């Protein structure tokens, strides 16, 4: 366990860059993890090393072969990390770009007059792509409404709108607005029960940093992550596709291998940093368990992260020491309710009588980094039905501490009318 183990928390924090200090701001507490997690120090070092290599991966020279081996190793590491025995991994411009690409390909390969199904909780990365390419491909788009009170969409919600002619489906694994995690395996099973050949594509961008990825159990055709939200760096995304999806008609060079999805020269450094991330989960799993198998250690790390982040969110909601929690502050409303077991390291709130931007700035002036979500093209699908123009997103990760949350609670407490 991470909770109650200060030596391990110190060891974890020591592996990340800028844990307590921002090079632009100075000393600060980082509660903006959903916008982009802290970066492993090894990722910084690896990025610098490979940025200086001029050789193209795969060329017949020592550097070309060496960098290709780095890419191959990263893909093998991803297969262990995300637990898949089939399919392929490849990098793209970003998680959003890859989701558009996968959804576009699936829609254009679907039979005319078929349907695309998705949910109202989804990030626009999938919703925008599905709506756009459904229209272009002549497909009907089916919108599954999420529950405003819980911030969730369930397998039963999908089942209620499923028909055998659904050819493409999208699923959000976790919401960057409510912080709630969906049961991907159950939703996938519900979709396949009615339309067994449906192409199912999952946005795993928000979920991935919290561990517990298991592609083999999801029975889907595409899964996308953004490594900058999983302790790596900006500038690329990673997609996994099933063998079935890999073989359908897709953008590719003339006469290229039929299952090739990668374009142009690969960035060996981005792949190498993926291996750094997987090594970190492996290390953490060894610290919290006695497992000797690599996959088992990664699973143990995921469970420990989930448990500790649940402790952190509960501390924020219920309070610590003599500080009241967010639920006890009459001027604070918690989105999706204070008692929600689907929460993954994130609490979004509104403060009565104050614009969220102003609250975020007040906190920022005290060195507490949070973020405003507005009812715009990113978050309006969640906030508008709640009658909210904005909210404050407070997102934790397993390198955060109870002491940092105490600082946060103290700062929010004094924003109330009684203080």
TrEMBL record:
Residue span, Aminotransferase class V domain: 29-245, 324-408
Pfam families membership: Aminotran_5
Record key words, sorted: Pyridoxal phosphate
Signal peptide, first to last residue: none
Transmembrane segments: none
InterPro entries documented for this protein: Aminotrans_V_dom, PyrdxlP-dep_Trfase, PyrdxlP-dep_Trfase_major, PyrdxlP-dep_Trfase_small
Alphabetical list of PANTHER family matching this protein: CYSTEINE DESULFURASE (PTHR43586), CYSTEINE DESULFURASE 1, CHLOROPLASTIC (PTHR43586:SF8)
Protein's recorded name: Nitrogen fixation protein NifS
Organism: Ruegeria profundi
């Amino acid at each position: 366990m991470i909770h109650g183990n200060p030596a391990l928390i110190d060891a974890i924090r020591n592996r990340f860059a800028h844990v307590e200090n921002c090079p632009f701001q100075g000393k600060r507490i980082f509660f903006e993890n959903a916008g982009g997690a802290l970066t492993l120090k090894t990722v910084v070092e690896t990025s610098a090393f490979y940025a200086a290599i001029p050789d193209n991966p795969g060329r017949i020279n020592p550097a070309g072969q060496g960098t290709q081996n780095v890419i191959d190793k990263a893909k093998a590491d991803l297969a262990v990390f995300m637990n898949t025995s089939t399919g392929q991994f490849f990098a793209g411009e970003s998680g959003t770009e890859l989701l558009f690409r996968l959804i576009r390909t699936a829609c254009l390969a679907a039979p005319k007059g078929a349907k695309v199904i998705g949910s109202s909780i989804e990030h626009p990365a999938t919703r925008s792509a599905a709506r756009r390419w459904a229209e272009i491909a002549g497909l009907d788009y089916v919108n599954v409404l999420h529950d405003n009170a819980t911030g969730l969409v369930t397998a039963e919600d999908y089942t209620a709108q499923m028909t055998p002619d659904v050819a493409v489906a999208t699923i959000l694994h976790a919401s960057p607005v409510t912080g709630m995690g969906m049961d991907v395996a159950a939703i996938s099973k519900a979709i396949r029960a009615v339309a067994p050949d449906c192409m199912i594509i999952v946005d795993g961008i928000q979920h991935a940093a919290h561990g517990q990825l298991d592609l083999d159990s999801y029975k889907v055709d595409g899964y996308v992550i953004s490594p900058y939200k999983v302790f790596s760096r900006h500038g690329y995304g990673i997609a996994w596709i099933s063998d079935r999806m890999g073989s359908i008609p897709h953008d590719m060079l003339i006469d290229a291998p039929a299952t090739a999805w990668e374009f142009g020269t690969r960035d060996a450094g981005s792949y190498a940093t993926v291996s750094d991330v997987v090594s970190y989960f492996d290390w953490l799993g060894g610290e919290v368990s006695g497992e000797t198998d690599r996959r088992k250690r990664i699973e143990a790390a995921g469970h420990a992260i989930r448990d500790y982040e649940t402790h952190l969110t509960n501390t924020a909601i219920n309070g610590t020491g003599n500080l009241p929690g967010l639920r006890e502050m009459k001027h604070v409303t918690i989105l999706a309710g204070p008692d929600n077991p689907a929460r993954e390291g994130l609490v979004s709130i509104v403060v009565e009588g104050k614009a969220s931007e102003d609250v975020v700035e007040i906190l920022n002036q005290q060195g507490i980094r949070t973020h405003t979500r507005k009812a715009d093209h990113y978050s309006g699908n969640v906030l508008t039905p709640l009658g909210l123009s904005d909210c404050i997103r407070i997102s934790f990760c397993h390198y955060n501490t109870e002491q940092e949350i105490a600082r946060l609670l103290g700062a929010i407490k004094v924003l109330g009318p009684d203080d």
